[in-house]
Amino acid sequence: FKKAISKDKFIKKNFKLYLIGTGDLFNSVQKFIKKNQLNKHIVLIKQLDSKIMPQVYKCGHSLICLSSSETGPTVVKEALFSGIPVFSTNVGQVKKIITKKNGKIIPVNNPSLNVNEYIQFLKKKFNKKKIKKNFKLFLNKEEKTLEKTLNKIYR
Length: 155
What we know:
- By secondary structure, the protein is α/β, with parallel strands linked by helices.
- Helix content is 48%, strand content 12%.
- The strands form 2 sheets. The protein has a 3-stranded parallel beta sheet, with helices on one face. A two-stranded parallel ribbon has the order 1-2.
- The model has no long low-confidence stretch (mean pLDDT 83).
């Protein structure tokens, strides 16, 4: 990861990765960041108040979801609802909601994130307005209750 960041001038200049949440790998990720001196590029945040998540999505470029198992995942739906493209493992309903126009799906339990693939994903131009519009249309057809909830939170 460090090698990929240091080689790619576009990423080094334009991006900072914020990892939000805790999970089984939190401590090992924290050690990895420290060991490889990546704190200029990666910031770990254990928890955020859900009330500020709409602002977080507005500032974001993309969402990475590397879960090994999920039912939703809700975070992917929130990102798409906010117009944010998603790079996700194939968990839960991801296959149903992510397309080439709004993200990329990678296999679960990939031992290491294909960093070069993610860098190419970051460089791709996504139309955030279309992502948001198309996901709202999907929700209107498929998940009316979730649409109402998201509309209240992400006005």
